[in-house]
Structures are given as C-alpha cells and as structure tokens.
Amino acid sequence: MDPQPPKGSVWDPGEGKTVYTRTCKGAGGEITSTDVALPDGAQAPPQIDPAVVAQQAVDKMKLVGPDIASPRANGKYVVGVPMWLWVRKSPSTYGPNTVTATAGGVTVTATAKVKRIVWRTGDGGTETCSGPGTPYKESYGMQDSPTCGHRYTKTSAKAAGGKFALTATSTWSIDWQVTGDGGESGELTEVRQSQAQVAVGEVQVVG
Hints:
- Strands 4, 7, 8, 9, 11 and 12 form a six-stranded mixed β-sheet that branches. Strands 1-2 form a two-stranded antiparallel sheet.
- By secondary structure, the protein is mainly beta.
- The chain has one helix and twelve strands.
- The chain folds into two domains: 10-46, no CATH class; 48-201, Sandwich (Immunoglobulin-like).
- The model has no long low-confidence stretch (mean pLDDT 88).
- Strand 8 and strand 9 (126-129) form a beta hairpin.
- The protein has one helix at 50-61, and strands at residues 17-25, 31-39, 67-70, 76-78, 82-84, 86-88, 97-103, 106-120, 126-129, 149-151, 164-178, 185-201.
C-alpha cells in the first residue's frame, strides 16, 4: 500500500509490518480489494486466480455425457415415424450440480447445468435441443415431440452393424462466484458426449 497507513492510526499494522493491498476485477468490471499486513521482508501472498479454483470445483463434479433414454439401445425404429429424443436428468449428467472448492484462502462456489444437447443422428441429420427432451407416452401416437425429435428418412441397413451411430453432445454452462461480498464471478463451459446405436427399418407390407 502506498502510502502506508499513518502511524498510530487504526490501520497502523505496528512496527516491523507492511500493509499490502490485493486488487481484483470482477466479471462485471467491479473492483474489489483486500488489505493484509505482513512482516517486513516477507513476500506478499501469491494471488490465487479464482477461475483456477472454479475449475477445481468443476473437476470435483465429475460431469459426464447425456444419459440417453431414447432412442433405446435395443429399440427398433421405422423410417418416417417420429422419434422422440430425451435424456434422464441427474447432477452429473444434466445438472444442476453445485460444488465448492478452496485454494490459497480463496473459496469459490460453482453451479453447472446443461445448456443444450446436440444430437447427431447418424444419417447426416443434426438436432439441437435446449432441454432434456420430452418422454414419449403411447397416448401421443404418431405426433412429433414438442421439444426434441427426429425423423429418419432412410434405413440403417447399410450402416456399420446395421445400425446408425448416434451421438449426443451436451454443453455445460458453469457459473462461479467467490465467497464474500463483492466477490469475483465468472462462467466456464464444459462439453461431454455419449453415444448410442439406432436400428431403423421399413414397415413391411404384406400383399
């Protein structure tokens, strides 16, 4: 701190000590500062990057790819019939997932949630869904999913193993905040992936 606090003031650290100021800028541009008194000749404490601590919190979450509920691995689907795409939700596969991490006196709380899922259906198609999808019920009949679905226009007969290779890729948005008033904040992004096999055939008409 320059200048140092006046001798005899309430901020005077006493003989043999020097006051240091740690200044940080938050995600919104706000400035926060913390004062610390150290013995003369001591090194100022290393500045811990809160974003690094936030990443440590994310690592503790053990986030994984989408837990695909539909299409089912043993299901058989038909060309032209609506396929409803959806996933099961849990803290590690969809969120929300909240974890706190501490390093060097800096404590960060991070909350992760899937922002979107991109489905690559194996037939050249791509579906981008902002939610987990809607579970199908028999009463819905042949209608399209209101949130996330796909229609195959060809069979998987010529695909490897007679099935399309489907990939679901989730993008996680992680908001983090340093504990304390005026603490820094920020956002991280993580990507995870899951795969499934989809057998698609044609309706056989008997003449």
